[in-house]
# Entry
Amino acid sequence: MKWLTAGGLVAACAVGAGVTWGLGWPGLVLLAVLFVSASLLTQMNERGGPRRTARQVVANGGVAAVAALLGSWAAATGAIAAAAADTWATEVGAFSPFPPRLITSGRRVTRGASGGITALGTLGGVAGAATIALLAAVLRPRGAPPASPALIASAGIAGMLVDSVLGATLQGKYECPACDARFERGDTVCHEPVRLARGWRWLDNDAVNLAATLLGAVAGALGPVVAPR
# Structure
């Protein structure tokens, strides 16, 4: 499959199996919508993109699989909504005619820089979260506690925003000691191996995505509890 590496395909099958085991076909449909929409948006983008690895698949779908195995429809849909919001924001934002700005300071950054947002990308992320939330309301399995689409969408948007904030503040950023070129991967070699310039070495883009989906799951699970009855 051109959208996944061999390891990514195995991870996707494992995540899909976990979601299906815990939530049945409705959960699998939501996961499929996330994966297919993300892949199509990536292919529509002129920059294309490398095939997703097992680590990336787990970072985006692992929390949903765990929530599904625990039987929490609200948490699983919150995690999927967060993954959709973040992915749609990134891919739709690539079409913005205006350069992204850092979410924490408003400073202009290069396209693709972690923590950079655009108005178009943010609207795309909201649309992604809303799409998953509306589908979740329609597909909710019998016996699952009702979850407001607005709450699920809000959980997804919250995950997207936290992803940007972590990317702008704590995610590891690297630079070449020879030319000061900036990178986001610690295994990059420019003129020589890059060194950590700021942030936490272990907090890379995949870890940030995992944190975002975890927040989406928690927010989704807590939504029905704190919502007025």
About this structure: The longest strand covers residues 195-198. The mean pLDDT is 86. Strands lie at 101-102, 116-117, 173-175, 182-183, 195-198. The radius of gyration is 18 Å.
